[in-house]
Amino acid sequence: MSKIQLLAGPAVDEALEDTAIRHFFGYQMNPATLGLLLIFGGGAFAAAFYLWFWPGLGGGYTVGFIIAILAGMSFFSMASFWGNFRNKRFIAVSDDFLYIGKDEQAWRVHWSLVNQDTLNFDAMQTSRLQGRIHLETAGQTIEIPLYTPFVFVEDIEGLMFELLQRLEAEGGEAPIGAPDQDYDAAELLADGDDTGDDSDDE
To answer: pTM score > 0.85 for this model?
Structure first.
């Protein structure tokens, strides 16, 4: 069996079912920012409704109506995008493999390919708006999102602890700059430097 595979479709579920998954990390929506998107979207559509039925369209009212409709669609589209992100992304660990799921696909990476060189905490991209790790191994760069203003890994501390355990087992000690297993992950990641642009690849 290859040490790294890109699984797709039913093969993802089959691999997870056939493997003794020790820890499954899903993503969760941030209710505060989700609520703001829905409030702004609803407010924009309410404004469009008002312009349509109260003063009637024509001149500046027509422009306002179009802007309100587009704004409402944008806010609800953002809410839908991040809802799909939450539903289609995951990270799972077993004794032999690390799984990184995205949409209908998942990378299955043997733990022997996860080491201090391929999983470089010193290059971890973090800011107050987002955090992510890049696993660079076997000619592939695999992004592991940790948090954005809209979604976050449900158990960041548990995920980081799993990764650090593997790095310590591989190298005998925690890598320089890596967090201690008792760290406050949210505080650590929020205080990091932004080493890349903040756009998501989605």
So the answer is: no
